[in-house]
Design goal:
By secondary structure, the protein is of the alpha/beta class. The chain has two domains: 205 residues, TIM Barrel (Alpha-Beta Barrel); 124 residues, Lyase, Ornithine Decarboxylase, Chain A, domain 1 (Beta Barrel). It has twelve helices and 18 strands. The strands form three sheets. Strands 1, 10, 13, 14, 15, 16, 17 and 18 form an eight-stranded mixed sheet that branches. The protein is elongated, with a radius of gyration of 23 Å. The protein starts with 5 loop residues before the first strand and ends with a strand. 46% of the residues are buried.
């Protein structure tokens, strides 16, 4: 016996979404970003689904990068934040894992390194102001990196702060262009938003993140408009039904009050499963394929939903929390967050099944 809650990961959707990005950036290599356990979809699962087609993978965690290599993946693997300790460099070289170089400390470690050859991505800060060398320091950093005996190849990289918004990337592109003028190295600039909105940034290698998983990086463009499909669908079922009289309340804090007699369904899912506790009452949900809304606060293990649009619903009726038929971005919007967070927050206790193998 088990709770009816489960997350279905559609491997065919991952492959489809990767293909959409390849068509959007046909002259570029596409790295599939699989950090944070492939945005909650499962690193090994995503790697297996894309191993035959992906030009490479990008992630954050060095130990998982090594695990990917040991699993038999032979194409490029890039550490987006680079290495964290100089002692990691020999293992990265042995596993042929490329590393970002984004800080003075990393650059110094490479200058002192005398082991096997590494591929390096020199990160230039064009306005994100997290990692990377300031544009006015980029050429000096590049010359130092070129002199490192352990560096085999260099790619120039940046990460856009506003590729998903009306500000666009013109300012960032100008900064990057000034910093790299006359420098004949490959470039990696575009994230998911830039892949779809800013073709001038595609360059040699793009990095496909949120769109790989079927969500949108934009606030004003849906995932469906990009042509991508949800790779994660979170489903459950009603485990109880309550009949309320007008004026009765639901849940902790009694924040929802029935305006008239109504039926309420109780769903086996809560914030301990990864559903956002801060989702407002009224967040969208599908009950037996019909769009309805939550009613009251999200509990640790349960959600209550309005059954008014689904009068025939009862115990056992299927419920979709997000995914196929209900974009994760719609749910995230009701919680004041983004689809990325919901995917990454999927709890270990949620049963995961695969489809589209």
């Amino acid at each position: 016996m088990s709770r009816p809650l489960r997350a279905t990961i559609d491997l065919a959707a991952l492959r489809h979404n990767y293909g959409v990005a390849k068509r959007a950036a046909p002259r570029s290599r596409v790295l599939a970003v699989v950090k944070a356990n492939a945005y909650g979809h499962g690193l090994e699962r995503a790697a297996r689904a894309l191993a035959a087609t992906a030009d490479g993978f990008a992630l954050i965690e060095p130990e998982y990068a090594v695990r990917l290599r040991e699993s038999g993946f032979e194409r490029e693997i890039l550490l987006l934040e680079g290495f964290f300790e100089a002692g990691e460099l020999p293992q990265l070289a042995a596993a042929n894992i490329a590393t970002a170089v984004a800080t003075e400390e990393q650059l110094r470690a490479l200058e002192a390194y005398r082991g096997g050859a590494l591929d390096a991505y020199l990160k230039i800060n064009t306005g994100m102001n997290r990692l990377g060398f300031a544009p006015q320091r980029a050429k000096a950093a590049l010359e130092r990196l070129r002199a490192c005996p352990g560096v085999r190849s260099i790619t120039l990289m940046t990460h856009f702060a506003t590729s998903d918004g009306p500000e666009g990337i013109d300012d960032a592109m100008q900064r990057f262009g000034s910093a790299t003028a006359g420098v004949p190295f490959p470039k990696s600039l575009a994230n998911s938003a830039a892949i779809f909105a800013h073709p001038q940034s595609h360059a040699d290698t793009v990095r496909l993140g949120i769109a790989l998983y079927g969500a949108t990086p934009f606030s004003d463009r849906t995932a469906a408009s990009l042509g991508v499909k949800p790779a994660m669908t979170l489903t459950s079922a009603l485990i109880a039904v309550q009949d309320l009289e007008a004026g009765e309340t639901i849940g902790y804090g009694a924040t929802f009050r029935a305006a008239q007699p109504m039926r309420v369904g109780v769903v086996a899912c809560g914030y301990a499963d990864g559903y956002p506790r801060h989702a407002a009452s009224g967040a969208p949900v599908l009950v037996d394929g019909v769009r309805s809304r939550t009613a009251g606060r999200v509990s640790m293990d349960l959600i209550t939903v309005d059954l008014t649009p689904v009068p025939g619903a009862g115990v056992g009726t299927p419920v979709t929390l997000w995914g196929e038929g209900l974009p994760i971005d719609d749910v995230a919007g009701s919680a004041g967050t983004v689809g990325y967070e919901l995917m990454c927050a999927l709890a270990p206790r949620v049963r995961v099944v695969e489809a589209g193998a």
